[in-house]
Structure formats: C-alpha cells, structure tokens
C-alpha cells in the first residue's frame, strides 16, 4: 500500500514563518532559485561603482535569457533591462528579486514584492544588526511568504541560467558543485581559484546573515538538485542546529558535502561546573556534529580548494589502496610516508602487472609499488606504467609523481601519463613537483578532467577527500550496530530531579547524582552523607574500610583542587580526624564556601585500572554533547577526549572510545590485561539515554570512571540541572519510544507497534520475503522481486525528524511496516504500508494506519498522501474508508490525500 516515493513539491497549507522553533520553512518557494525565469533588481542604478549598477551589469553580462527589470524611482534605463519606477509597476512578479536599496527601505520593498507574488528575494544591504530592524524585515517577509537570502549577502549565481545576480567581480563557470558561504570574501576567492582551474558550479549562494534562508535550507535544496554532485560550504555559525543536522544527514547519503568552519574558539564556558564543559570548545563540537552528519571537514581555504579539485573530477572511491608511479626513487619514498600517515595502504601489485611492467621498464626498476620507472624515463614509460597500475585489480587509485629532468619535459611526461590513464576507470591523480613543471602539465590535466597537485602532501590529502566521501556513504550502509537500551528506573531519577526543582537547587548532591546513575545501571560507589565530623563515624559503620572522605559543598565544584578529598583512611577514627582537619582548613581558606557536611565511601581499588572521564556539556548551538577520555585529576591538562552528539548506539560509542589516546591503555599492554571496554560502552549509552529522558540535565561529570578488566565503577559524579523543566535540545532526534503501543485489530490480532531501529534490518527483510509478488509491485510500483539492502537501510536507519517507520509485531514475528516520509517542511508526508501475506484481511492495515495518522496529527503534519497502483483496489478502498480522497491520477497510479491538521 503506497509506493513511498520522494516528495519533491512543497505546497503545504501551513502558514509560513521565519525560523520558528516548531515550523522552519526549509525549501518552500526556493526551487525557483535553481533556475529563475525572470529577475528584478530593486535599487538598480546607472551610477557606476554603485552596488545597484554592478549587480545589474553582472546580470546583463552573464547572458541571462529571461526578462530583467531595473526598479528605481529615478530613471535607470540600461540596454537589456526594462526600467520601472516601482515594484508595483512591474508587469508580473519576478521569480527572483535582488534588493540593493538602503536598509531602511528594504522591509517595504519586501512587502510590496510579496503582495505582487514574488517569493524569493536576495538582500544585499547590511544595516540589520539591531533586533528591531530584523524583526521588521522578518514580519514583512512573513506576511506573504517571501523567502529571504541575506541580508548582507553578496548575491547568488545560477550558471546554468547564465545568471550572476551578485556584485562578485567574476561569474562562476558551469559545473556540478554548489558553493554555499556565509562570507562573500570566501566566494570571491573561490571563484578566482575555480576560474584558474576551470572548475564550475551548479549554484553559488552567499547566505549572508541568514535571517531566513539558512544552511539547512540550502543543503536541502541542493541535495535534491539533480544537477549538483557535491556541496561546498563555508560556515561561520549554524542558526537552527536541528534543521541543519537533519538536512546534512539527508544530503550526505547521496552526495559529498565539504565544509570549512571559521573560528577555533576554545572558550567553552570558562565558568562551567564540569571538567567536560571546560574541555569542550565550540570548534570541537562543530567537528563532532559535522562528523556525525557525514560532512567532510577541512581546515583551510587551500584544503577546500583541494577538496573541490577532487570532488568535481572523480567519484568517491570505495577502497584506499594506492599505486604510485614515479620517475624519482626519493619521491616514491616520500609518497609512501605520506600515504601511510594518511591511512592509505600501498596496493599489492598483481603478478601479471609485474610481468607486463618487466617488458617495458629497464632491468633495474623497483619491481613493486611504488613503480619507479627510473630517472631517464621518457613519456612512453609513464604511459605504460600508469596503464598497468590503473588496470591492476588490486589498486583503487593511482598517484603519478613526476620529478623534472632534462631527459623529457614535464609537458611530454604529462601527455604520456594521460595516454596511460585514458582507459583507466579509477582516479588517476597527478603530482608534478616544482611550479614550472606543474604549470607545463596543468592545462593537459585540466583538459583530461584529472586533478594535478604540486606537492606530494597535497596530492595524498586530495586522495583522502575521496576516501572520506566514500566512507561517509559507506557509513549509511554499514552493518547496523546492536542497540543496547539500558534498563533504567526513570521514575526514580525523575523524583530526584523534581525534588531539586522544588528546592530551587541546580546542583545535585553527590548522593543524588549517584542515585541517578544507579537508576540507569551505571555501577557507583556506595556513599553515606555525614553532616559533621562526628557523624562520619556512624557513616563508616555502614561501609567497609578503608574509607574516602570528601567535602560536601555546593560552592566547591572540584574537591581535590581545594584539598577536599582524603583517601586510604584505615578506620572510622582516621576518617573522623580527616574530616575535622579538612573542614577547619577549608573553612579558613574558603570562608565564603558553604560546607554542608561530608561524603563517606569505601575506597575502591582496581589493579591496573584506567581512569576515564564520561561527561555531558551543553553547547549553545548543538545542545547536549557527550565526551569520553582520560580522566582523573589531570583531565584538563591531558585534554584527551572524544566528542559525540547523542543519541548513541554501540558502534558510535566504540568509535568515540577509539578516537581517544587513552584507548591504547584500554587495549592492554605487556602484562596488563585489556580493560572492559564494553562496560564503558554501556555507560556511554546509559548517559545518552539519561539526557534524552531528562533535558533538564545540562552538565554531568563522571570523573573518574575506573575501568578494570572485569568492571567499571563511577567513583565521583556531579550533575547540574536547569532551574526549571525544559524541552529537549538534542539536535538529532532520538527514537520516539513513547509511540510504542499495544494495539488490537478488529479481527482480534494483538500487535506490538514501535518505531523502527537500525538493528531491525533482518526482520524487515524477512517481512518482505513473506509479501506476495503482487503486493511488492504495489508497494514499490516496480517489478521488484527482492527488496535489496539499499532499500532496507533507507527504511531502518532513518532520521526520526523527517521519517517514521512503525513496525507491527505479532508475538516475535514482524507482520507489517508503515513508513511515513515527510517533506523537509514537515507539512506533508507520504505513507506506504506493507503486510505479510498470511496476515492480510485481519485488520492490520487499518489499525496501523490509524496509529500513523495519530502520530502525524501529534507531529503537526498537515496532510498525508499515498501513491497507489490503480490496480490496488483493496488499498484504495481502505483509504477511502479512512478519509483519503484522490487528488491526482494517471493511467497506472493514483495519489490519495487526507488532511490531518488544519
């Protein structure tokens, strides 16, 4: 039932808004930006040097074929454009308006354009720093649903339409990369570089201050654009992180996305309670977010150029094995070093490749990889070696390095290498050492549409970009990780946090913090609270020696820093004495600190144990961030940690741990056994679940988490909560487990319905094996015989912010699936249902559809559609009964729609 096709139109009925939390506009009305048919320049001028004149001149010089209007109260008649005195005088609404007039006039112009029917406007003025002026502009745009790029934009370019609607000094050439930038200067630099390399673009957008259209919107737009193969971004800051992450994760599934992030701030909240907060910098969090979204992060404009050089010329390669062809032995050795440092193994050449090379290379050649054709080589040796290496079944890419010699020119050697590469389907990357050498070869490589670099390091880094792009795609198809949903007592934790809210406290006591960890299955140290030194003796009677005594004070976050921890105390008397001494000294040295008592606990020892930190910090942009790394007192000195955005699964948690330096110690060494890494994985998942359950937790530190061969123990924990109950700030939506339900069909079939998980792939595959061929055809509208893994992955590894797939189980058997795929605006979604053949006719479809429609209504999705085969009479009848009405039909298909919310 339903084909689940991608939804590409965005005509939902919900009222438009600009960056509201519940209803971001995403790509609505933006499709015309890909190929506008008419353009108006509001503020166009005949005065040379003005922005209005420059933009109009650029449009007319670019060869744009549609009508161009120059709007200005003063005559601005320019050949090629039609002058009108006002927006109201325009004969028809232009597809795109470029507003160059001063800031005070812009809101009125936007309102007039909206009333006329224009839906896309680019604002170049920059006088909108004040909140009042931004509010006025947003209100004007919202009134008629006008989408705004800018303000403070350089403009946009659409090379396929011959449109340069910007004041950039150079027009972009035609290509298949989109360039999205918050900096106009970066765009002009990129266009200069691209022109020198004959690199073109499908679109160039200067996002400016992103009052409305932001990077998430643009990612959605160009991810769906069939004329764009890769997306480049210059990012200064993300405005709507949840929308950005959802759009980026959708885009990187189908095409590479490369970004450079400006600013490497390490100021992460200098007043943070937790070590985690102090260690988590803004750039670090962006890096973690980009990695999770599959975005390739580069560190310089040069690297952005190099990534563009590779991605516009080659498809991402699945393997990493590189064959090196060179005429210099030393260059070959340097290449091996660079490849190994970059994680690229050398390709083991096949025997038949070595044999073929023996026939064309001198007796002294290297007979291996790197393939050294020897310094006296002419172009014919390069040709033969490149062809042999490129056609070897063991190679994934070829790196050709030429060192200049007097024997043969660099240009001639380039021609030889390119003849050898002519019939090679793998990436062949050139590296001509020396600027003159590279200059001679570059035109030839560009004509062959192959990349050329001037240094070995740059060439290897370029190969790395291809590998990263491939890995980003492969991650979508990786074997689903087991998901450990930790057993937990949510109500117990809720009572503790609720009590803190009632008391007006944001810092939980150590006893409360440990109780929350215990409620989520994290092993902790039993702790007793003593109000004074005398009470320490009674506390010790409930615990086993030796003891640890810690100061309890809401004003002293890090106890060891102030001498507030005493360890190895053999008996209760020693513990009492330590508490007395500690209390007097801290009261004297920190008279403003409120000392509420002492924490007493048994001392835990773990031979060869490793101390870790597991924490949560609250990032201003991306919300809660998880951290793991080397712990203990030196945690901020070591600064060894890996970051990840929640939610986690087993594989993400393991990869986090593997990125730390302390992972080497966890693996064991010499006579030290490996630590229990799986127990650390469970702790990370427990914390991930905890912060999903309680958005109120804004900071958490487990430090140290003592890890031994058999167990883990949280020795110390501190938790800070918000001063009131708050909404979740997770930018990656966790599985909405609240939508799991026990349902009963009209025929009495008991169903357990829940959202899909990544590890449901096998169950879903089994379901489709028990669906009739006819129902498979109805479901996918093709003659599909078997549901392949690409489709199964798309149905199981979903973005819950955009897609929902409900699975219905009868006992342990998966009997039905109902997939609801939203457009980026979340105003419309498409429904597709499949039921096992032996469960048809039992009311499963009806019951599951009711559940889906309740979910759609709760999510504010305006309409639900289903695309059916005209022959699927049973499905069409059911949908009519459920209130769906036909809205489109062709000879073989019917589109039915139901309004869910007004």
Could you explain the architecture of this structure?
This protein has 902 residues and is of the alpha/beta class. Among the domains are: 322-476, Succinyl-CoA synthetase domains (Rossmann fold, 3-Layer(aba) Sandwich); 490-598, 2-Layer Sandwich (Dna Ligase, domain 1), CATH 3.30.1490.20; 610-721, D-amino Acid Aminotransferase, Chain A, domain 1 (2-Layer Sandwich); 737-899, Gcn5-related N-acetyltransferase (GNAT) (Aminopeptidase), CATH 3.40.630. The chain is built from 28 helices and 36 strands. The longest helix has 21 residues, at 456-476. The radius of gyration is 32 Å and the shape is globular. 49% of the residues are buried.
Please provide a brief summary of the model.
By secondary structure, this protein is of the alpha/beta class. It contains 28 helices and 36 strands.
For the secondary structure, the number of strands is 36
- What is the average of the pLDDT values? 88
Low-confidence stretches: 4-24, 267-276
Secondary-structure content class:
alpha/beta
The Rg value, from CA coordinates, equals 32 Å
Strand order of the largest sheet: 29-30-31-32-33-34-36-35
The CATH topology of the domain at 737-899 turns out to be Aminopeptidase
Quick tags:
902 residues; 28 helices; 35% helix; Dna Ligase, domain 1; globular; eight-stranded mixed β-sheet; D-amino Acid Aminotransferase, Chain A, domain 1; alpha/beta; Rossmann fold; seven-stranded mixed β-sheet
């Amino acid at each position: 039932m339903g084909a689940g096709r991608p939804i590409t139109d965005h005509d939902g009925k919900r009222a438009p808004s600009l960056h509201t939390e519940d209803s971001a506009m995403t790509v609505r009305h933006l499709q015309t930006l890909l190929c506008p048919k008419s353009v108006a320049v509001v503020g166009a001028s005949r005065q040379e040097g003005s922005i209005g004149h420059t933009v109009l001149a650029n449009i007319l010089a670019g060869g744009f074929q549609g009508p161009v209007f120059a709007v200005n109260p003063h005559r601005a008649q320019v050949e090629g454009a039609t002058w009108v005195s006002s927006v109201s005088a325009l004969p028809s609404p232009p597809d795109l308006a470029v507003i160059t007039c001063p800031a005070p006039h812009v809101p009125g112009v936007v309102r007039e354009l909206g009333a006329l029917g224009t839906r896309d406007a680019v604002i170049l003025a920059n006088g909108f720093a004040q909140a009042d002026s931004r509010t006025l502009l947003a209100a004007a745009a919202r009134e008629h649903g006008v989408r705004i790029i800018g303000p403070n934009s350089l403009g946009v370019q659409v090379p396929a339409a011959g449109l340069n609607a910007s004041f950039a000094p150079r027009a972009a050439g035609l290509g298949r990369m989109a360039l999205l930038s918050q900096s106009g200067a970066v765009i002009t630099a990129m266009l200069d570089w691209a022109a020198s390399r004959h690199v073109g673009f499908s679109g160039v957008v200067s996002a400016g201050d992103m009052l409305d259209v932001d990077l998430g919107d643009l990612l959605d737009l160009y991810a769906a654009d069939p004329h764009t193969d890769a997306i480049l971004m210059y990012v200064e800051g993300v405005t709507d992180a949840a929308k950005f992450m959802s759009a980026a994760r959708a885009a990187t599934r189908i095409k590479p996305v490369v970004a450079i992030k400006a600013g490497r701030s390490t100021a992460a909240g200098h007043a943070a309670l937790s070590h985690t907060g102090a260690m988590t910098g803004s750039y670090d969090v962006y890096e973690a977010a980009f990695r999770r979204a599959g975005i390739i992060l580069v560190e310089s404009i040069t690297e952005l150029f190099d990534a563009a050089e590779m991605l516009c010329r080659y498809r991402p390669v699945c393997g990493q094995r590189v064959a090196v062809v060179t005429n210099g032995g030393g260059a070959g050795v340097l290449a091996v070093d660079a490849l190994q440092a970059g994680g690229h193994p050398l390709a083991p050449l096949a025997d038949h490749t070595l044999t073929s090379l023996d026939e064309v290379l001198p007796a002294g050649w290297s007979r291996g990889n790197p393939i050294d054709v020897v310094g006296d080589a002419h172009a014919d040796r390069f040709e033969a070696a490149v062809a042999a290496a490129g056609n070897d079944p063991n190679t994934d890419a070829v790196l050709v390095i030429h060192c200049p010699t007097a024997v043969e020119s660099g240009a001639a050697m380039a021609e030889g290498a390119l003849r050898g590469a002519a019939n090679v389907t793998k990436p062949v990357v050139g590296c001509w050492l020396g600027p003159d050498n590279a200059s001679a070869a570059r035109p030839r490589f560009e004509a062959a549409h192959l990349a050329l670099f001037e240094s070995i390091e740059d060439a290897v880094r370029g190969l790395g970009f291809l590998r990263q792009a491939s890995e980003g795609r492969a991650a979508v198809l990786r074997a689903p990780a087991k998901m450990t949903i930790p057993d937990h007592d949510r109500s117990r934790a809720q009572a503790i946090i609720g009590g803190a809210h009632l008391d007006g406290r944001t810092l939980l006591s150590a006893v409360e913090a440990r109780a929350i960890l215990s409620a989520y299955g994290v092993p902790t140290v039993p702790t007793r609270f003593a109000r004074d030194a005398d009470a320490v003796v009674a506390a010790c009677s409930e615990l086993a020696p030796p003891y640890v005594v810690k100061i309890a004070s809401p004003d002293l976050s890090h106890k060891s820093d102030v001498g507030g921890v005493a360890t190895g105390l053999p008996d209760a008397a020693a513990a009492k004495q330590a508490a007395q001494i500690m209390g007097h000294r801290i009261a004297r040295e920190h008279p403003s600190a409120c000392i509420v008592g002492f924490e007493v606990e048994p001392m835990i020892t773990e031979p060869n144990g490793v101390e870790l930190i597991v924490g949560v910090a609250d990032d201003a942009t991306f919300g809660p961030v998880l951290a793991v790394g080397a712990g203990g007192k030196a945690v901020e000195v070591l600064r060894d940690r890996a970051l990840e955005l929640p939610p986690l699964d087993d594989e993400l948690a393991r990869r986090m741990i593997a990125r730390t330096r302390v992972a080497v110690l966890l693996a064991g060494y010499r006579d030290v056994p490996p630590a229990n890494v799986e127990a650390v994985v469970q702790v990370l998942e427990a914390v991930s679940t905890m912060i999903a359950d309680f958005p109120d937790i804004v900071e958490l530190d487990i430090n140290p988490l003592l890890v031994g061969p058999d167990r883990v123990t949280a020795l110390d924990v501190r938790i800070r909560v918000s001063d009131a109950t708050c909404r979740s700030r997770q930018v990656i939506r966790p599985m909405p487990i609240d939508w799991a339900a026990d349902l009963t069909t009209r025929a009495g079939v008991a169903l357990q319905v829940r959202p899909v998980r990544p590890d449901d792939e096998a169950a879903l595959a089994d379901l489709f094996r028990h669906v009739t061929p006819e129902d498979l055809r109805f479901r996918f509208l093709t003659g599909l015989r078997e549901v392949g893994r690409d489709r199964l992955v798309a149905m199981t590894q979903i973005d819950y912010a955009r897609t929902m797939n409900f699975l219905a189980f009868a006992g342990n058997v998966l009997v039905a699936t109902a997939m609801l795929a939203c457009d980026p605006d979340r105003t419309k979604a498409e429904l597709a249902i499949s039921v096992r053949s032996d469960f048809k006719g039992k009311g499963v479809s009806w019951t599951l559809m009711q559940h889906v429609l309740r979910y759609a209504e709760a999510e504010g999705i305006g309409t639900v559609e289903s695309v059916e085969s005209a022959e699927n009479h049973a499905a069409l009848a059911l949908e009519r009964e459920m209130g769906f009405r036909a809205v489109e039909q062709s000879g073989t298909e019917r589109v039915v729609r139901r309004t869910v919310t007004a």
